[in-house]
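Technical appendix A lists one of the benchmark inputs used to test multi-chain prediction within the project. The record comprises two sequence entries:
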Amino acid sequence: MAILPSISVSLDLDPQRHTAVLLRTPTISTPFGLHRISVKPQKIFGFKMDSREIEQTRMSSSTLTTKASREPSGLTQELDSKLQAVPESESGCDLFKDMKHRFLSFKKNKYMEHIEHYEKLAQSQAPKFMVIACADSRVCPSAILGFQPGEAFTVRNVANLVPPFESGPSETNAALEFAVNSLEVENVLVIGHSCCGGIRALMSMEEEGDSSSFIRNWVVVGKNAKASTKAVASNLSFDQQCKHCEKESINRSLLNLLTYPWIEERVRKGILSIHGGYYDFVDCTFEKWTLDYEESNLKEANGGISVKDQLFWC
Amino acid sequence: MAGVSVSEVAIQGLKKLLSEKEDLDDVAAGAKIEKLTLELQGQKSHSSDPAVQAITDGFTDFKINHFEKYPDFYNELAEGQSPKFLVFACSDSRVSPTFILNFKPGEAFMVRNIANLVPPFNQIRYSGVGAAIEYAVSVLGVENILVIGHSRCGGIKRLMELPGDGSVHFDFVDDWVQIGLPAKSKVVAQGVPADQQLEALEKEAVNLSLVNLQTYPYVKEKISEKKLALRGGYYNFVNGSFELWELKTCISPPIIIE
């Protein structure tokens, strides 16, 4: 396995000179035949290039570069000849170029514009929110709720599920532990969304099914939400049931948050608030509600949840 | 018992109307009434909580300046997603890939966890990450998996500090960051100077995750079909730089011994 030298893209912090430094790999273009990134969004959200950008080459001193240059040159030559037969694709290079442009645009328009803020952030983060959202490409919390760097410690997983304490360690509760106990966030926000593939998979799941599927093994965390959806909404269409389950599972996740002792303690003391959110990208609306801890305790027996401070933005 | 209140009468009437006019059953009609009520309340959705007000403003800005400006784009997205990327990034509030690499809605299926780690294939222990990889690769057909590490990573710092005696300070964090132990061993074995070890580990953990990705059968399959590329990235917010590299597997021509 070869790890190729890195491409470093960095801008001098000296605002007088904007130079882009690009170190190109000395070998081959990718044989993977990758497509160009979808052009449509770029047309809409175009960005301006810095016309003073100058390309130079400079040796990178990173560990990776040093490692790769120790590779016997024979290997590279063999690789070259092996790939003669493959139609040369430029998509890989395009991708690197595209990433470079995106990063430089961020650097110029945001990082340098607010350099003091970024220097402070580099020292430490103190986000007020912990957000648990779905991995779906359409529902990034930074995009739809405008979270800026430093504002939200974010976990994204399939179907924005929060497993209960008794299910044992997972990446979601590791992030919860860090956010709540170390960063001491004041809010936890679980955001669900419309047309969620993970929830759909949960609703479609047979009781006895293929347990070799990861998706199945994960979305089963939401089985209580599925059960309560079936109990009240089985006469609705499948799509409507899924929508119901999308919201039900958010509430289940909020209840699961309370199974963590260090979360429950903070909520009880009033120093941590737990919120649910639902983003509907079909008609672009957002609902938000807050767990009412006092009232919810009374309903705990039947898994009920009491909410307050409901908002609906449309 | 007091008679049914005026508002309850109104709601029952509205429910009946919705059932007849819009062919909604009881549960759906109830949900619609709730939505309408909230809509009316939301007209004055100014919150006294500055944190909530911030996200109210954020959503309003997104709706006006993006969603409503490009309805065709968003309508198409609502029908289905076809992202080209599966991105693994850290949960750190400072490193949202959407922000630093300008990913637009629909471009990147994104997993965020502590220290952007990808564990090796294990259906019992790591079903969350596995589900994301399975969905992105097998269902959505992404063409690139990009794992992005970053500077001053708290998770990597914790990994570095993990005591050798197995004692734990954090129940869940420590269990999670242990995934990176092979990368830690490598950095220590290479004799990287102490002041450079954290950065070296931040990058080596990305490489470890790329290697771990290949333990997932559908990932391996797509790579061999040349339909999937594995890439690593490193965002350094201290000096404002970004590195990008690719993991490639090559098999040299055989030596024929006769």
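Chain A has 13 helices and ten strands. Chain A touches chain B through 122 residues (CB under 8 Å). Comparable benchmark entries are summarised in Table A2.
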